Amino acid sequence: VTMLCAPLGSVVSNHLSCQVGIMLGGLLASTGLILGSFATNLKHLYLTLGVLTGLGFALCYSPAIAMVG
């Protein structure tokens, strides 16, 4: 999910800013990790850790690489 949604992080950072993209990604990733700790079944764990955390890391990945460059 992280590498599939990395172009989305690039679009967000181009339209808003790199800082907003990284903060939004960190918020999504931390929400996914926190909700994953309360998972009661495997489907819920896939949704929280896989989708939410992966999307959050995707929003952080592209802007972070651009800022370092």
UniProtKB/TrEMBL annotation:
Topology class, membrane: Multi-pass membrane protein
GO (cellular component) term, any one: basolateral plasma membrane
Main location: membrane
GO biological process: creatine transmembrane transport
Any one Gene Ontology molecular-function term assigned to this protein's record: transmembrane transporter activity
Cell compartment(s), UniProt: Basolateral cell membrane
Lineage, opening ranks: Eukaryota, Metazoa, Chordata, Craniata, Vertebrata
Keywords of the record: Cell membrane, Membrane, Transmembrane, Transmembrane helix
Residue stretches spanning the membrane: 20-38, 45-68
Full protein name: Solute carrier family 16, member 12
Family: Belongs to the major facilitator superfamily. Monocarboxylate porter (TC 2.A.1.13) family.
Domain Major facilitator superfamily (MFS) profile: 1-69
